[in-house]
Design a protein that fits this description.
The complex is a heterotrimer of chains A (127), B (449) and C (264). By secondary structure, chain A is mainly alpha-helical. Chain A is elongated. Chain A has helices at residues 4-18, 20-29, 50-71, 88-95, 103-110, and strands at 75-77, 83-85. In chain A, β1 (75-77) and β2 form a beta hairpin. Chain B has a single domain, classed as Formate dehydrogenase/DMSO reductase domain (Formate dehydrogenase/DMSO reductase fold, Up-down Bundle), CATH 1.20.1630.10. Helix content of chain B is 75%, strand content 0%. Chain B contains 19 helices and no strands. The radius of gyration of chain B is 24 Å and the shape is globular. Chain C has 8 helices and 9 strands. Chain C has helices spanning 5-30, 35-38, 70-78, 99-102, 162-166, 205-209, 215-219, 235-242; strands at residues 53-58, 94-98, 120-124, 142-144, 150-152, 173-174, 198-199, 224-228, 258-261. A 3-stranded mixed beta sheet of chain C has the order 8-1-9. Chain C has a two-stranded antiparallel sheet with strand order 2-3. The model of chain C is unreliable at 34-49 (pLDDT under 50). Classes of the chains: A mainly alpha (127), B mainly alpha (449), C alpha+beta (264). Chains in contact: A-C, B-C. The interface between B and C is large, with 46 and 45 residues.
């Protein structure tokens, strides 16, 4: 092909640039930035198990929102049979009352900006 | 069409807007650009703080933005009437004005839609109109109709542009790559021409139907509520007539400006202004008829809620706006257009400017007085628009003009191929006519010519 | 491309068939409404159908109480309704208006009796049986629930204010600014709203779910009676059967479910 030298050089530079996140973090910097959310409640488990909550809590909350507001149903039955009131402030934040050390830890780390807090209240932290 | 014909100097003014830019263009850019930036600043201010920076209130929750919305969508009927209807009735005089008309339509629709988006409390949720669409709502009918209208009139404009883009492509120049792409390989063969004619005819019909539905549906936003003086069966035809009225006026103004600044006196002749002026006169009479019927009906019925709004328009809070509207829409333009002495190019343009102002006032007088009273006669409220609302109105108008001017720099504002086509038709017509004359008459004519 | 028209049409047909068959399962797998996910937890409780909420307001209870705002204060406090200095921006879920403005066509009826033209009457959203406000909402952010309450979904409202134009009673308010700074004291049990959405009385749907009466009714049980219109044993049903009832603008056919009566 024509201009082989230029093309290969360009490709190499491109690959280096595009794989930046991988090699930059592999150099050992990543672990320092992992978020560490603090759990302040004595309850053993959240509504569902931790792995599920980590992956699905936003989808769960949207499901709750849809069900409470549009269907008028307010009770959630967890997979282990416990019943909960579907409320962000009332249920979730009653245990996770430390929003800044819990919710914001991971959210800030990944740059997620849930706008729930524009309306839903954050209860005062109780000692 | 012989390519050598394109180089003839006689058609130079048609290309000049594309090829050269003078001091006026730069001045227009600066002024219109500055006004647009002011409008943008006003909107950013509103976006950051909330719609509370307008003069809107709990009772008068729709004001200048909704007026702008109806006004801009109304002006979009310029293209439909001139381009589509005149094409279908084969009125030859339409040829130099179809491009300008179609361009107004396509551009102004964006500002109509934009005005609604500016008015939303949560514009970040504008896509919910598609995702959660409730088709029982007249606003959704609006969204659908305007979307179809925008799509079809854009295609209409583009189709009619193709042969001219090909002409520009063949002339070369800086934008040749753009014209090459957009010309879609047009060579002017008979087959291509036949296909284009068919497509344009199809769109002409479609666009007329859609345009009527668009402004009818805009009127339904008001007419389908049970607010006094909104819930009126006349709104559908009233709004369509008003739209055509303001559309023709806007077209005349733009024709005057391009004639003046691009030296198109040989193409936009008094006859064009005269014909459009007569159409404008007819629409003024239509407008007056509908307005008269509406207010007489309300007055004669004497329903308390309607009458309190009626009087607020005739003698009360909105009397100044109402009577200004009558003056600008009827009292000034009709004599100017009715008498031959004043039906000059200047006279017709003055009448058009008057109509455009009057029609904006008409939309305002429809939207706001009803809201000041609604069904709560004792709770009369007041609407004091702020600089934000005026800024956005001015910004929208300025940006519209700016985009229009930029368009004329890229594409010819008069349809060159249609003019040539008209000339060919005329020549063929005259040839045919001559051929059928008896020999003595032919000889006499040849001596004269 | 050398494909013939026939082949192109065949391709279109197959594509259309394929789309119509395959789309639903693919979307289901991707969507939140996937039955497999739903199985983990949301149990449908007893639906609210079979209840038809309504309110009866005793006009005479507000006589000689020109300055009483007990019901208004209760509602606006519980629901974090902001207070603005400029009346133009006000938000009110429940308020008082003079009798002659609430019942413009019935004005003559009580002229000589205890109720006068300027007697304050409590007004709020009527949660109409045929609401003219829900049908015009372009996103269905406001709708009528099965139990009769006309709801607003603040997550979906785009703030077009068409519902405000649809309501003939002027029952709806708009958030012209961010309300949070203007709420005197935030009740943490109820969210605030953002700017740019419409709000109105919701018949305290969240309190009803907890088995409580609406806040205004709790603040003034002598003037406001709330209950299930279809329950023959409810207090409201009894009142509606035994008193002369008037409604706001009945001729509009909206079927308001807020009724006004006088105790004599």
């Amino acid at each position: 092909m024509y201009d082989t030298g230029k093309i290969v050089t360009g490709l190499v530079i491109f690959l280096v640039l595009i794989s930046f996140p991988i090699w930059f973090n592999a150099a050992g910097n990543a672990s320092a930035n992992l978020p560490e959310p603090e759990i302040v409640t004595d309850e053993e488990q959240c509504i569902e198990d931790t792995e599920f909550m980590k992956a699905e809590h936003m989808d769960l909350l949207i499901d709750w929102r849809q069900t409470v507001v549009r269907d008028g149903i307010r009770t959630y039955v967890a997979s282990d049979g416990r019943a909960f009131n579907m409320s962000l402030t009332g249920t979730c934040l009653s245990c996770h009352s430390n929003k800044e050390e819990f919710c914001d830890e991971c959210h800030n780390s990944v740059g997620a900006q849930p706008n729930c807090w524009n309306c839903h209240n954050i209860p005062e932290e109780t000692e | 069409m012989d390519k050598r014909q394109l180089q003839s100097t006689e058609d130079r003014p048609l290309y000049e807007s594309v090829t050269t830019s003078g001091r006026n263009f730069k001045l227009a850019l600066i002024v219109l650009g500055a006004l647009t930036l002011w409008g943008l600043a006003a909107y950013i201010f509103q976006y950051n703080i909330g719609l509370g920076v307008t003069g809107l209130s709990r009772q008068i929750f729709w004001g200048i933005y909704i007026t702008n919305f109806v006004f801009f969508i109304g002006i979009s009927h310029a293209g439909t009437l001139i381009s589509a209807i005149l094409r279908l009735v084969k009125a030859e005089w339409r040829r130099p004005i179809t491009r300008a008309a179609e361009m107004i339509t396509v551009l102004v629709l964006f500002f109509g839609v934009g005005s609604i988006l500016i008015d939303l409390g949560r514009p970040d949720r504008m896509l919910y109109l598609a995702r959660y669409a409730n088709f029982r709502s007249p606003l959704l009918w609006d969204v659908t109709a305007v979307a179809v209208y925008l799509t079809s009139s854009s295609l209409f404009l583009y189709l009619a542009l193709i042969p001219d883009i090909a002409l520009l492509r063949d002339r070369g120049g800086r934008l040749k790559w753009l014209y090459q792409m957009l010309a879609l390989g047009w060579e002017g063969t008979e087959r291509q021409q036949a296909r284009l004619d068919k497509a344009i005819r199809f769109f002409s019909i479609l666009v007329i139907l859609v345009a009527v539905s668009v402004h009818t549906v805009v009127s339904f936003v008001f007419a389908m509520t049970i607010q006094p003086m909104w819930h009126s069966a006349i709104f559908g035809p009233y709004f369509v007539a008003g739209a055509i009225f303001s559309g023709i006026a806007a077209l005349i103004i733009s024709m005057y400006l391009i004639r003046k600044f691009y030296h198109l006196e040989d193409y936009l002749k008094p006859v064009h202004f005269n014909n459009l002026g007569l159409l404008l006169l007819v629409m003024a009479l239509f407008w007056f008829y509908f307005t008269f019927a509406e207010y007489l009906t309300a007055f004669y019925g004497n329903e308390p809620l309607e009458m309190s709004i009626f009087w607020s328009k005739f003698t009360g809070q909105y009397a100044f706006f109402f009577w200004s509207m009558v003056m600008f829409c009827f009292v000034i333009p009709v004599p100017l257009l009715a008498f031959k002495q004043t039906r000059t190019i200047t006279g017709i343009t003055i009448a058009s400017i008057s109509v455009v102002i009057g029609m904006w006032l008409e939309r305002f007088v429809i939207v706001v007085p009803t809201l000041t009273l609604q069904r709560l006669p004792a709770e009369q409220a007041f609407y004091h628009p702020t600089w934000v609302e005026f800024g956005i109105l001015v910004g929208c108008l300025a940006l519209f003009c700016l985009l229009y001017v930029l368009f004329t720099k890229v594409f010819p504002i008069i349809s060159i191929w249609e003019l040539k086509e008209g000339k060919e038709h005329k020549k063929a017509e005259v040839r045919e006519w001559l051929r059928n004359r008896p020999p003595e008459e032919r000889a006499e004519l040849q001596r004269e010519l | 491309m050398d494909t013939s028209r026939r082949n192109f049409l065949k391709l279109l047909g197959i594509a259309a068939f394929g789309f119509s068959v395959a789309t639903r399962p693919v979307l289901n797998l991707l969507s939140r409404n996937n039955p497999a996910r739903a199985a983990i937890g949301i149990e449908p409780t007893v639906p609210l159908a079979g209840k038809k909420w309504g309110m009866a307001i005793d006009i005479t209870a507000c006589l000689d109480k020109e300055n009483c705002t007990a019901c208004i204060d209760a509602c606006h406090t519980v629901h974090n309704v902001p207070v603005y200095p400029n009346q133009h921006d006000e938000i009110k879920w429940i308020w008082r208006a003079p009798y002659k403005d609430v019942f413009p066509e019935a004005e003559h009826a009580f002229k000589e009796a205890t109720v006068k033209s300027d007697t304050p009457v409590t007004v709020l959203c009527n949660h109409c049986t045929e609401p003219p406000c829900t049908v015009v909402c372009p996103t269905r952010a406001t709708w009528k629930r099965e139990d009769g309450i006309v709801m607003i979904d603040y997550h979906r409202c785009i703030g077009c204010r068409y519902c405000m134009a649809g309501c003939p009673y002027g029952a709806r308010s708009f958030n012209w600014f961010d309300p949070r700074p203007y709420v005197p004291e935030i009740n943490e049990d109820f969210p605030t709203r953002t700017r740019g959405v419409v709000e109105k009385c919701n018949f305290c749907a969240e309190r009803l779910a907890r088995g409580q009466q609406p806040a205004c009714v709790e603040a003034c049980p002598e003037a406001l009676i709330f209950g299930d219109l279809e329950d023959p044993n409810s207090e409201i049903n009894e009142i509606l059967r035994t008193h002369h009832i008037i409604q706001r603008l009945p001729e509009l056919g909206t079927g308001p479910n807020v009724f006004y009566f006088t105790r004599d």
